[in-house]
Amino acid sequence: MPILKNIPHPLTILMGVIVLAALATWLVPAGKFDTLTYAAPNFTLNKNGTDITLPAKQKTLDSLHIVTPLTAFEQGTIRKPVSVPGSYHRLPKNAQGVVSIIEAPIKGIYDTIDIVLFILLIGGFIHVFNETGALEAGLKSLSVKMHGHEGWLIIIVTFLLTFGGASYGMAEEAFAFYPVLVPLFLAAGYDLLVPVAVIFGGTQLGTLSSFSNPFSTIIASNACGISWTDGINGRLIMFVLSAAVYITYVFRYAQKVRRNPSASLVYRFDGLVQSPFPAFSRNTVATKLSNRSSLLLGIFFLAFAIMITGVVEYHWWLLEMSAVFVVAAVLVAVIQRMNQKVFIDTFIKGAEGLLSVAFIVGAARGVTAILDGGNISDTIVHEASIMVSGLPPGLFIVLLMLLYCVFTLFISSSSGMAGVTMPIMGGLALAAHVPGREIVNSYLFGMGIMGFVTPTGLILPSLALVGISLKAWWKFIWPLMLMLLVLCGAALLIGVNL
Fold this sequence. Notes:
It is built from 22 helices and six strands. The protein is mainly alpha-helical. The longest helix has 28 residues, at 232-259. It is globular, with a radius of gyration of 23 Å.
């Protein structure tokens, strides 16, 4: 029986990936596309490392063969630099050495400091709330009420998180759900893979089936020169189909583990893993919630409601979301009449509990720092675009999806991927007689599928949060990835022939 201490820590895995990325900068030729950035009232064209100011007009975009409409820049949909088609040029090799490898995870933390702080502040809030006892009391009550029907909880929560990912891009904010769902699923007799599959897997599936996600579908469509509503009916169908396949797969695994705990992949690969969140006996009979506990639980769920509403309606991001949890923690302390010193110590202790997760997020971005420092990201995209050009439409679109699977190993940011690749692939689509909507779909499907395992994404911090290994997750997820790959490939082939 393998035991957890023999499995590499996620930070160790990421450092290995950083080393491999650095080695790639010695082997892959360096090169870069010119980029165009909007800063009202002008564009800034970075050409061969030199910034050139150009008027922010449609004819400027037309002259550069960028199919993205001017309104996408003016309305703030496109905020990051976009690649200029046909502008790829070789650069002197800038191979990354030992110093760059050492600095990479630190640079990654600098680049992701907003996400890091969000995770730490959630940790502080959850720990303060746990100290009140209201969360455990509420979970006990819910466990008793859901006894025998926990499978419905898997179905409903997974669907809602998938909808959140597909509609408005829920991702990092889902970390806040682990302290609630882990004890509940454990009390129901499931293993630690189930909450990861429900929370991380649900939001990741939303990437694949995004129909209105502003960070992927809308940005990519604009960068490709089409309306984001072009193809929305097909994406809604894919949302329903992929969610049905995914939820069925997770539900069957969860029920199998519940009937036979030795069938757990966590037990098989990691041994007996202790839950990092407070657990309670599934046989415990919950007493009636006190008025104070009910009030505290109301604040707890109100914080999530405010966060989601702010993101959807007011375009909040991590700064505003973090502020919500800080205010919620203070309100909990006031209602609980918690001494200010005890409150601060408790909050800091909670943040400390998620420090390793925050470091993992930063280290993952360090891989991107290495690739960008070595100027090989654009080379990979350029060579891939040459590979697929001139192919028949069906072969072109399926191969493009597979290439996006590969790209996701290097660029896990959906908005970053769109800015780098969509202007290039959008131009190729015209030559290959492939509808622009299918180019966007191939990007969504490729990122959605490979995002389940890419070490530069959110899977490693998610696994670290519950204490299970990548090996156990891989054994669980790879059959599902194959199912989704077949489903997405079929959808693309149908799409290019409509």
